[in-house]
Fold this protein.
Amino acid sequence: MAQAVIREPRMGASILRLFFHDCFVNGCDGSVLLDDTATFTGEKNALPNRNSARGFEVIDTIKASVETECSATVSCADILALASRDGVYLLGGPSWTVQLGRRDATTASLSAANSNLPGPGSSLSTLISMFAAKGLSAQEMTALSGAHTIGQTQCTNFRAHIYNDTNIDPSFADLRKQNCPASGGDSNLVPLDVLTPYRFDNNYYQNLVAQRGLLHSDQELFRGGSQDALVKQYGNDAALFASDFARAMVKMGSISPLTGTGGEIRLNYRKVNG
Ligand code: HEM
């Protein structure tokens, strides 16, 4: 991860997002990493992932070197959990102890990826209920959303917010319109955190208080609703955010793991053994 993040700081963000997308779809079981096969369509082509999820080649490299050291022992799901933690830490965020022992899925689900992952147009109540469906509280949802202190997003995901919503700082909307025309330029990229795009800090929350959240779903956390007070608290207290984020990551990482004789230890993370 250190090599990958030095080469491209965004990679810390991309791997963290892969882990979120793995855990929310049938648990943290490496399913997001599987390529499509004749018997199932994988998650890589689900709406939230297609032309968006990235970093697979970094997991390839890590998996290959782990296999050389000790074959068929460490699951792809565990590698993703560890790599996410390291990416966050390398970009200045907290560290935490990763619980290990996840095994890898032998199947993946495009439809579960489409229905379990929240979209950028989600309302606060949708966000709260989609996280609750995974055993995560509204407070944990708000802490985990702080992941958007790093990484980038494409115009297509924030266009409606900068052009149609009124709960946005007008000068910030104008700034973002420069890279995101009303039509066209769908894949133009901009940082999620306008202040420090590659620093894992609490500026995401300060942005929300200033109505500078980039996704509609981000700004939903600070719009006169139940999460306002917590957003302010995280914006004022970097240490509180860091520790709550770390704890919530451990919890997210424990969603429905495959253990015991469930699943397998995949030899190549892109495909099922055999
Ligand atoms: C609360 C609901 C969430 C929604 C609606 C959401 C949605 C999105 C969207 C639309 C993007 C941009 C994708 C693109 O334009 O290609 C994105 C990026 C990202 N998300 Fe989320 N996300 C959510 C929660 C999370 C969580 C819980 C994490 C991790 C703990 C996370 C980590 C990231 C990261 C790091 C990026 C940047 C990835 C990169 O630069 O490659 N997100 N998210």
Remarks:
- The mean pLDDT is 97.
- The first strand starts at residue 152 and ends at 154.
- DSSP finds 13 helices and two strands in the chain.
- The pocket of protoporphyrin IX containing FE is lined by residues 10, 13-14, 16-17, 20, 52, 54, 118-120, 122, 127, 144-145, 147-148, 150-154, 157, 215, 217 (CB under 6 Å).
